[in-house]
Amino acid sequence: MLPEGSDLAFEGLQARVTIVRGLGGGTQGQVFEVDVAGERMALKWYFPNSIAADPNLERRLLASIQATAPNPSYLWPLALLRPAAGESTRLPLAVQSFGYLMPLRPPGYIGAHEHVGGLVDISLQTVMRSSFFLAEAFHDLHLRGLCYKDISLMNLFLEPSSGRILICDNDNVAIDGRDPGSVLGTPGFMAPEVLLRQARPGANSDLFSLAVLIFRLLTRHDPLLGSLELAIRCLDEPARRRLYGEDPVFIFDPRDDRNRPDPEAHPAALVTWPIYPAPLQVLFLQTFGIGMKSPERRALTGQWKQVLARTLDQRRLCPHCGQETFPDPAAPGRCWNCGRELGPGLALQLPHGLVQAAAGNELHPHHFDNLHPQGLGNPLARLESHPSRHDLLGLRNLDAHPWQALLRNGERLNVDPGQVCNLAPLTGLVTPSGPITLLR
Amino acid sequence: MAFPNVRLSNRPLHFIYLCDCSGSMAAQGKMQALNQAIRQSLPGMADVARENPEARVLVRAISFSDRAFWHIPDPTPVTDLVWTDLQAGGITAMGEALELVASQLSSPPMEERALPPVLVLISDGQPTDDFERGLSLLMRQPWAQKAVRLAIAMGHDADLEVLQQFIGPEPFPRLPEGEVPGASGHQPRMAARSRSPRRPLQASNATSLAQYIQWASTAVVGAASRPASRLGGEELHSNQNQSNIPLPDLPPTLMDPTDDIGPLVW
Ligand SMILES: Nc1ncnc2c1ncn2[C@@H]1O[C@H](COP(=O)(O)OP(=O)(O)OP(=O)(O)O)[C@@H](O)[C@H]1O
Ligand SMILES: [Zn+2]
Fold first, then answer.
1. What is the ipTM of this complex?
2. pTM here?
3. CA 20 to 30 Å from A303, out of A23, A405, A434, B142?
């Protein structure tokens, strides 16, 4: 719609906007990479008919732009653009339309569907971190009184190296309960009461969608596709209405076993579910159990954040097969992968948390200060194995201040920012944030 | 240490082109335009297939002229697909083409569980064989009834009636905006009505043909593989008497669709 290479003027914008290239099209419009005064951004440009179908769109966007992004995980609208008066001759169709500028998604991010489709190598820790970032993004959005309404795998991007996420297509975000908006959501991610049109999408239906997304990330499977799906020959809209709206049954519902995963048809669910510790499973059981029909009983964003953060702290590498596991520190039990006993492991006791000593695990400010919101963005330390001697495990100081390591022989050792200290001879560390004690 | 080697379970999505290769397709570069349009659409189709892990998109094609043949007989993943050019020459065995599809839509060979198949019929003329028989054989198959059936009319000699029969009953006819039924004293022409995927799509030139092929192989494949975002204004059961998946909007065209400007390329 907007020709590549063209240089356009928009109402109220000093700089001209150069259309660099098309990034893709969806149902509502097209997205372009643009250059605005030397900065690369993304421009979403609506089809005139989708504006006509959604009379509140412009008002909603302006409200979002004014509210600003709740959190860095959103590719949030930054400015609304309308063609300047003089452009009507060059863009006969586009003048009836408008669009918005947002940050450009940096390289390195992949669509969440690539993970769910098994097309990328990714660690369990990364997927767990992405799930945390997702819960955090919804948490910060809901705290502002906003709701997302139409989250699905299509709007979610992950960085496989860090687990960081980006959420795009934020044009349905609205004040919870205020703006009816036009979007209901996407079947399969939509709460049953919204699919059945008994309720409008809002924060409580977002909680259902959040649980579906986290489940899909952690299991590569759909929480409602089990044996009941096998009875359906043609999976079309009426069938989806039954599975996701009229008779939704969680595949691991302890009180209703009609929809158990089938070993042949749904192996992903059966392989992955046992990986996760009980407190995490409980949040799914709650949201897809009592919360299925009672929206106010669904697990809250804060609960997801807390449980996912603790699960990350519990991560250990199986001493036999090397696979990532998330056992209860009090009762490690057997490895989900090789079935052998995990046995006790080295752990770091912090003022507000217990972190297993496994390469890749991190210490965060919330481990030292329980008033600090849970977050993974600014780690204070990371467990790392020695670059050549993989049997040596160390702790890298990511703080701005030097730390004191306490050696078993009573001596003290300085650990400067950026340095890694070997954990083997230590009993603990003293840091400005608080003490770290090694539990063997 | 890695995510276990599992993936979302998926269902096959059969996508079948039925291409008219009668002698008239040789005129004004129509055959080349169709070959080009399909070939150019494949990368986009592969992207959509990749984006939809719940679907396993499998493509086949039939060509029909004096007889109907499988041009691509095996259900082929779109990334493995190599499009060899169709050649024009002969008459229009459209009925036989429908029969060929019918034989493949019965189970077996059709899988027991699948997503709604997508059938795209492209023609520039009238069937010369027993179209009715082919259609009734096809529509006896439950998978054909569940299928998304689209038709593209190339040029102005295509038999719109026949293509409409393939799609199914025409939706409630909508008049152009502002027009009062009967006020103009004449029946609105097919082309003068608002466009709908439930009517034959009229490709009057190579550009609009390419747009429609692109739309069918991307937007429609996406809609058939996974549920789409739902708008509140839509009627609960709208579309459902017509099709079992909500069809995406047609691509916006640069030309006014109500404006009959005649052929550009042929
Ligand atoms: N900020 C961005 N940076 C880079 N690419 C983007 C950005 N926003 C969107 N895209 C890409 O542009 C394409 C279309 O975007 P989007 O999903 O927003 O369109 P849409 O019309 O809202 O689609 P739908 O409503 O069907 O999801 C997608 O491929 C998306 O990945
Ligand atoms: Zn093991």
1. 0.86
2. 0.91
3. A434
